[in-house]
Every structure is written in C-alpha cells, then in structure tokens.
Amino acid sequence: MEWVLVKNLKDHVGSEVELRGWVYNQRASGKIRFIILRDGTGTVQCVLVKAENPGLFEKAADLTQESSVILTGSIREEPRSPSGVEITLNSFIIIGRADPYPITLKEHGVDFLSENRHLWIRTPRQSAILRIRSTAEQACREFLHGRDFVLADSPIITPAACEGTSTLFEISYHEEKAYLSQSGQLYNEATAMALNRIFCFGPTFRAEKSKTRRHLMEFWMLEAEAAFFEFEDNLKLQEELVFHLVRTVLDRHSQDLRLLNRDIEKLEAVSLPFPRVSYTDALKLLISEGHQIQWGEDFGAPQETAISEKYQSPVFITHFPAGIKAFYMEPDPANPEVILGADMLAPEGYGEIIGGSQRISDPDLLRKKIAEHNLPVDTFSWYLDLRRYGTVPHSGFGLGIERTVAWLCGIEHVREAIPFPRTLYRMYP
Ligand code: 4AD
User: For residue 352, how far is its CA from the centre of ligand 1 (angstroms)?
Assistant: First the structure.
C-alpha cells in the first residue's frame, strides 16, 4: 500500500493508503473514536467506529499522545476539516508507545515550553513556523540564484571582528584567540571580487547582552555581496528579495498562516518600491512626535516602531551618521558625515530585518577607518588587499532570517522562528 504524507492526502481521495506519524490527540464517545494523527507535514482526523471493528476500537484506547504509529485507512473528502479530508481507519500498529506526554493541549508557560523545546517543536503552531522558515530560506536562494548570484560559504571561525568588538564570542583556536563569526561580509567581499555576485547563508553569533524579543546569540543571516553595485542597486535588490519572500510565503503557506492566525491582509499590502527615509528626516519626524533623541544617536526599538508603523511595506532608513555604523561603510560623497547604507525595518514593529551598505573602496580611507575604530590593522591586511588589487565599488547586505520569519508569521518573539534558539539566559536543549 502506498505511504502518503498528510499534506498530500487530498490527491488520493477515494483510495486506501498508509500513514506514518504520531498521535496528536484522541477522543472517544461510546461508539466512535477520533484520532488526530500528525506526521510533521500536517494533521488529519482518523475515525474509528466501534460497531465496524470492535477489536481495533479497544486496541486504540492504548494510543497515548505522541505514540508513534503506522496506520492504514481510506481517504474521504471532508470540507469541514483543515486538511480537507478525513480517514476511515482500517488498521494500525504502534511503533513506540509514548509515556505520559509533558506538553498537553492546555496552555503552558514559555519557560516550561523553552525547557522542552525538543518536544515543543512538534506542536502544529511551531511546526507551521518552521515550515515557513524553510520556505523563506529556499525562496532567498531561488531569488539570488535567479539573479546570477553564486553561493560562496563564509567561515565560522574568524580572527577578527566585523560588526564591533563588544559582541564577539571568543574561542580558543589551539594557541591562538579566535572568534565566532558575527557576519560573513568581509569574506563575501573577497569572494565577490572572485565571482562577481555572491551570497552566503549561515549561522552568525553575537554575544549581545540583550534580552529582547528580537535578539538571539546565534542567528542565521543571508548575506549578499555584489561587485560594481552601488547604493541604489543594493536597495533595489533588497526590496525585490523581500517582496519575493512575502509573495512566496503567501502563495505556498496559506494554511500555515491561517493556523498561526496571521493577518494575511497586512502581508498582501506589501508593495514595491519600499519607502525610503533618510536618518536625518526620520530624526526630525521623531523629535516632532516628542522623542528625546539627538542627531548622531542610534534608533532603539521605540523609534524604529514609530517610523515603521507609518508604512504598510518595509521602510529603508538611509544615510545614517558614520559614527554609529561599522567601519567599512562608504561615506556619502555629498556629505561624508553620513554613509551610503540603509537598514530595512519591517512593518508592525518587527524592527530591523536587513542591514546593508556600499563598502569603502579606497585603500587609504579604509586603513584610516580601521585605525579610528581601534581594530588591529594586521588582521585586516588581507581585507585591505581587496582594495590594492583591482578595487571596485561594491555593496551588500545581511538579512536576519529569524526576524524576517517572525514578521512573516506574525509571532511575538524570534525564539520561535528557529528550531533551537540561543538566548541570553538559555542554551538548553
Ligand atoms: O545590521 P547587521 O549587524 O549587519 C551585518 O552584520 C552586516 N555585516 C551584513 C552585511 O552587510 N553583509 O545585521 C544584519 C541583520 C539585522 O538586520 C538583523 O535582521 C539580524 O541581522 N540580526 C539579528 N537577528 C537576531 N538576533 C541578533 N542578535 C541580531 N543581530 C542582527
């Protein structure tokens, strides 16, 4: 008999199939038993009528929550069920009978759920988020490959900081000090000089002392870098990528988004081009609304939310003061106090999902900036070589996948957007 995944059941209406999964829930009246089976691709209700098969009906009483089973049944159309079908159960075998399961259908506190993350991910809501994450990652790759970007993986173990020394995780590399990568960018700039348009996608690490709903210590970043791309080219690529992500998730995950109670209209309202506001104009607006902030100070979550909630699409904040941004960002020739970089803020208060910029291409200016930021020039000598041997204008960006997925799914906290989150006070399990 054919083994079919729950997500594909609709294509097999009328036939008898095999299903493999876990018991999510079951309830029985005197004469009829309903078993909800989950197999990771979705859930489906299986029905067992006592009068039709009394032996099997009795045996099913033993199916505890999360017991693993292989069952056979006939598929019927059932418009009222979320999967669109229902199974008439014909037989089953128990593969592993589960002990009393700690995560029941009642509400649990977030500490308890986090402690049991290895089990929490089995619940339909968490599974839906992780499926959307998978699609978001796939859509990023599809989009960039379609634009002639080559995947060039960057190292995790690095000798120097990319995004400032205060958030580095230090490790011992035999006798030497090394750090977990904060960003693949510097290596991306090298591979872009070799391959023209490249991207990397991998875990990045920030020892942030931040306990907010947007911060993880380990998060995944999609980073693109393109030779001969200037500031404008960079923004255009970013907005088209994010628009593609939104459309792809809407197209492929309507059922998951419904399960998450996502307000789909908010995602449908995202349109191109995304609005752009300079840091200086954004600051004026914030001051006029009563925010206590001066030119040269960075925006925090309240300021980001105040700006982003004025738009239905993500918004770019451009031309930040050089003093609050990384050493490698190209100053604006029209006003060297600000840089040719931008942050993309997601709507609905989800905060910054992309940081990007044009990079300094002049070797002397770059050396000066490295010194001004008190970074060790020696460890950057290979990076300076990129400007010595055929320097070109180039630009790139990094998209934080967890913040992006949190926004797409409409969930409160980034910890639910990654299978095993690493937060300030938790790295178990
Ligand atoms: O703005 P960031 O720090 O940019 C860079 O690292 C650049 N070197 C990227 C590049 O140009 N290649 O980080 C980029 C994105 C942020 O917009 C945010 O979405 C995410 O990474 N991010 C975090 N996500 C979760 N937890 C954290 N602690 C994060 N820090 C940054």
Answer: 8
pLDDT tens digits for 71-100?
999 999 999 887 899 999 999 999 999 999
Nearest Cα neighbor of 35 from 5, 10, 11, 67 is 67
Q: Determine which residue's CA is closest to atom 22 belonging to ligand 1.
A: 400
Residues 6+ apart with CB under 8 A from 240: 143, 272
The protein residue with its alpha carbon nearest to ligand 1, atom 23, reads 400
Q: Does ligand 1 have an atom closer than 6 angstroms to the CB of 183? A: yes
Contact 257, 231 (CB under 8 A): no
- 397 touches ligand 1 (CB under 6 Å): yes
Cα 12 to Cα 10: distance, rounded to the nearest angstrom:
5
pLDDT at site 278? 98
Q: Is 215 in the pocket of ligand 1 (CB under 6 A)?
A: yes
**Residue having the nearest C-alpha atom to atom 27 of ligand 1:** 215
Q: Whose CA is closest to atom 17 on ligand 1?
A: 354
Question: What pLDDT score does 251 carry?
Answer: 98
Burial status of residue 289 (CB atoms within 10 A of its CB: 0-12, 13-18, 19 or more): exposed
How many angstroms does the Cα of residue 109 sit away from the middle of ligand 1?
29
CB 383 within 8 A of CB 389: no
Overall pTM surpassing 0.90 (yes/no): yes
Binding site membership of 304 for ligand 1 (Cβ less than 6 Å) = no
Closest CA to 45 of 14, 12, 82: 82
The pLDDT score that the predictor gives to residue 161 is 87
Domains and CATH numbers, the chain: 6-96 (2.40.50.140), 117-417 (3.30.930.10)
